[in-house]
Amino acid sequence: SFTCPSCALTLQAKLPEGITSVQCSGCKSVFAVQIQPTVAGPSGPAGQHKKGARKRSKIDKEGNTAPRVLNAYNVFMKEELAKVKREHPELIHKDAFKMAADRWQASPMNPQNGGDQVPKRGAGDDVAAMDE
After folding, report:
1. 27 and 8 Cβ atoms separated by less than 8 Å
2. Quick one: which of 81, 116, 109 has its CA closest to 95?
3. Counting beta carbons within 10 angstroms of the beta carbon of residue 99, is it exposed (0 to 12), middle (13 to 18) or buried (19 or more)?
4. Fewer CB within 10 Å, N- or C-terminus of the chain?
5. Where are the domains of the chain?
6. Can you state the angle between helices 93-106 and 72-87, rounded to 10 degrees?
7. What is the end-to-end Cα distance of the chain in Å, rounded?
8. Mind giving me the DSSP string for 40-105?
9. Distance of alpha carbon 69 from alpha carbon 118, whole angstroms
C-alpha cells in the first residue's frame, strides 16, 4: 500500500517492480511510486498461481522454449492460410484467414466431420515441408 501525496488517501494496488505512475482514485492526481523487489520462497506470493492463469512454456538451460503442440485446427489453418495466400495474393490477411476458416468447416481434418487427429507437430514446423 502507498499514500497519495496530495490527499493522503491510502491506496492499494499490485504494481510491477520499479518506478510506476499511479493515479489517485480520490483526487485524481498522478504521482510516481517506486516498488522494491520482494524476496519470497516457493510458498510465498511468487509461488502461488491464480486459478485460470496461463502456464508459462518450459524453458531449457539455453533459454529456448519448447514449441507448443498444434491441434488439428492449428495445423489445418497454418497450411490452408499459406495456400489461400498463394492462390489469392491480393487478399488482405483478414480475408484470407476468413476463407481458410470457411474451408475448415468442410475439411476432412475437422473432427466434427469425422476427421482423424493429425500427427502432433510443433509450432516451428515449416509449412512448405507439410505441402509435400
Report:
1. no
2. 81
3. middle
4. C
5. 1-36, 72-106
6. 130
7. 60
8. --TTSGGG---TTPPPPPPB-TTSPBPPPEE-HHHHHHHHHHHHHHHH-TTS-HHHHHHHHHHHHH
9. 11
pTM of the predicted model as reported, rounded to 2 decimal places: 0.41
* Cβ-based neighbours of 5, under 8 Å, separated by 6 or more: 29, 31
In the structure grid, which three cell numbers stand for residue 21, read together? 505512475
How large a percentage of the chain has pLDDT more than 90?
Answer: 18
Give the β-pairing of 18-23 and 10-11. unpaired
